Amino acid sequence: MTKRPIYYDTETTGLKPATDRIIEIAAFDPEQDRSFCEFINPEMAIPQESTNIHGITDEMVKESGTFKEVGQAFADFCEGDIVLIAHNNDNFDKHFLAAEAKRAELDFPDWVMLDSLKWARKYRPDLPRHTLQFLREMYGIEANQAHRALDDVKVLHAVFSAMIDDLDIETVLNLLTAEGGAITKMPFGKHQGKPLNQVPKNYVSWLLDQGAFDKPENLDLKSAFEKAGVID
User: Which of 87, 147, 157, 191 is catalytic?
Assistant: First the structure.
């Protein structure tokens, strides 16, 4: 049986899963034509610089449930044999979900996940950018309220459907798996292109001290260094 795709997105207080919180989560199930969208009380102040991006204020979330409540409702929405799809999922959304679930002591299913950004980068290398809004414009999809979770989810569904054309989700998953997405070489800096096990440990330690691995886009790189034995 083919897995049922569910598109999802999160808005957060910041960029660090260890210290920031999810304040909005949305999902869209196109096969069942159902939507999920809830604010979450992060039990901390939302920084103004984050509000400037997504427009969510402390006042908007103060009466909302905590992640323990909303997270369980999200898990209930995502029942069945599904695949969760988000744009930049592997470097952002899935790490926030995991961190929030751990804090709330929620036992989430071991969902199959798919990162639409990875698909765009692999199969549309001709494009100068792969942000969701750039892809929306490129595919001629109607504008939305960018950086609000449910609006972004609806746009993602339209964009990803256009990108994969008539491929089914199982085929897409297989193609991304065959890609061999594991990081094996240093992607940036003065040691760019070197195999990870040849990058000097003092340089990796310096990156750690500088907080480079706290950035969502470098979490996979940190994991790859750990697997290579460069980071203890």
Answer: 147
